[in-house]
Amino acid sequence: MKNLVPLAALVGLLAVSVPAHAQTARLGYVPTEDHPVGMASVFFAEKVKEKTDGRITIETFGNGVLGSEPQLQSSIQGGFLDVMVGPTSNLVGTVPEYLIFDLPFFYPDFEAVDAVMDGDVGKFLFERLDTEMGIVGLAYWDNGFRHITNAVRPINTIEDLSGLKIRVIPNPLFLSTFETLGTNPVPLPYPELYNALESGAVEAQETPVGLIHSSRFYEVQDHLALTGHVYTPFVLLASKRWFDGLSDEDRAAVLEAAQEAAVYQRDLSRSDADRLTGLLEEEGMQVTRLTEEEMAKLRERVAPVVERFSEEIGTDLVQQARAAMDAVAD
C-alpha cells in the first residue's frame, strides 16, 4: 500500500494535466485535405490549441464528409457544427451585400481584394453576418481568382463561350453573369461537380486553379482558360452558440488564431497558383490566356450585370470598395 499514490496527490496531478473546461469543437470544409483550406484548417486548429493552453481542441473534417457548403452553413446556424470554411457566395441569400465578392472583373489584383476584405467593407459584412444569420465571421481566406475549364474547345474569344453548359455556384449573380456571356449556366453544389463533368451532365466549370488541381478536374476537362473573371474569398465562420459560449480569453485566442491562419492560408494559396497551373499543363490540359482585347470584350459584355447588382448590393458600399482599392492602386 505504501507504493500507491495518495488520492489527494492523484487529484492534483489530474488537475495539472487536464485543462480546465477542456472542450472539442468540429471544423468542416469541402476542399481536399491537401488544398490550402485543408492545410490552413489544421494550422488554425493547432494555433487555437496552443493559444488556449489546450482548453480547446478542434477536429478538422475535409472533403465534404460533413456535407456540402450550404449544409455546413445550416449546421453552423443551428449550432450543430462549431466552425466551417466556405465561399462567401453561399451567404448572399440572406446577406445580399456579399455579392460584392461575386461582381465580375471587379477586382484587379490581390492587393485590391485584401484592401476590401480587411478594411471597413469586410468588417461591415461580418457585422451583417452576425445580425442577419447569427454567424460569427472569424477571418477571410483566399480562394483565388476563378478560371474556366471545359471539355469541348479552347477558349480564346468571347464567342468560344457560346452555348457551353457550365456549372456555376447556385447564386443569382453567377447565373446572370454566365447567361450574359452566352453560356448555359447550371447551378450545382460543389460535391456533385466531378460526377457531373464525368457524365457529361455539364461540359464546363469555373473555379480557382487550386480547386481545379486538388479536385482532379484535369481528368475530365481538357481546356483551361485563365480568365480571372471573379474573386470569391473563402471565409472562416463560427457558430454563434459555440463562440459566445467561450470565455473572453478564449474568444480572443480564437480570433487571433484565425487571423494568423488567414495570413498563412493566403500566402499558401497565392504562391502556389502558378505552380499548379504548370502541373495542370503537365496533366494534359491546354491552357489559354485571352488577349487584352478579348478580356476587354468580356468586361464590356458584363458591365450591365455589374451595374444592376451594384444597386442590389448598395451603391454606397460598392463605392466604398472602389475607394479602398484606389487607395492601394499603383
Automatic annotation (TrEMBL):
<protein>
    <recommendedName>
        <fullName>ABC transporter substrate-binding protein</fullName>
    </recommendedName>
</protein>
<dbReference type="GO" id="GO:0030288">
    <property type="term" value="C:outer membrane-bounded periplasmic space"/>
</dbReference>
<dbReference type="InterPro" id="IPR038404">
    <property type="entry name" value="TRAP_DctP_sf"/>
</dbReference>
<dbReference type="Pfam" id="PF03480">
    <property type="entry name" value="DctP"/>
</dbReference>
<dbReference type="InterPro" id="IPR004682">
    <property type="entry name" value="TRAP_DctP"/>
</dbReference>
<dbReference type="GO" id="GO:0030246">
    <property type="term" value="F:carbohydrate binding"/>
</dbReference>
<dbReference type="InterPro" id="IPR018389">
    <property type="entry name" value="DctP_fam"/>
</dbReference>
<feature type="signal peptide">
    <location>
        <begin position="1"/>
        <end position="22"/>
    </location>
</feature>
<dbReference type="GO" id="GO:0055085">
    <property type="term" value="P:transmembrane transport"/>
</dbReference>
<keyword id="KW-0732">Signal</keyword>
